[in-house]
Write a structure and sequence with these properties.
Length: 174
């Protein structure tokens, strides 16, 4: 017999809150926004060259050649794949970021000005974010050495935020 407390649908707010917390934790451990922008950047590049997108500006018709269609198909699908890769395999973030930047730049001459710049800009920003993203620090002593004001203290208490070996840790400044 099902009890109200055991049924998973009995408390939808708790289930939604738990799912949101789990998603927030998952999102924090990978370059989520870089992957999303790279994924979104591939969509207009993939979409605009196909025959069902007939564009005409006033009396001027825009004819799309097959080379642009094949290039757009390849570049758009690779950007979408790189976006998903950034979500699932954050270890290859530098490669995926550089590849996304190069593919986005390559889409300007090959794929109708990068999907009329609607795919170029998110692809460039997403690739840049992927290259700049660093995983959360797992060093146990970094976050613990803080003074009363919340400023990081070094190993010898000098306030410069230096970690082991005398090298400054990323993200900590004095």
């Amino acid at each position: 017999m099902w009890n109200r407390t055991t049924a998973p649908w009995s408390r939808p707010r708790e289930a939604i809150a738990t799912a949101r917390r789990e998603f927030r934790v998952w999102r924090g451990t990978r370059p989520f926004w870089a992957g999303l922008l790279t994924f979104v950047g591939g969509l207009p590049i993939l979409y605009f060259p196909f025959p069902y997108t007939h564009l005409s500006l006033g009396g001027l018709g825009l004819a799309l050649s097959t080379t642009a269609g094949a290039g757009s198909l390849l570049i758009g699908s690779l950007l979408i794949t790189l976006g998903v890769t950034l979500w699932l395999q954050q270890q290859v973030r530098i490669f995926a970021g550089v590849a996304a930047i190069l593919l986005s730049l390559l889409s300007v001459p090959v794929a109708n000005f990068g999907g009329f710049f609607l795919g170029l800009l998110p692809g460039l920003i997403g690739g840049s974010l992927a290259c700049a993203w660093a995983p959360p620090s797992t060093h146990p002593g970094i976050l613990g050495r803080r003074d009363a004001d919340g400023h990081a203290r070094g190993a010898d208490g000098d306030g410069v935020g230096r970690g082991d070996g005398g090298l400054a840790e990323p993200g900590i400044s004095g």
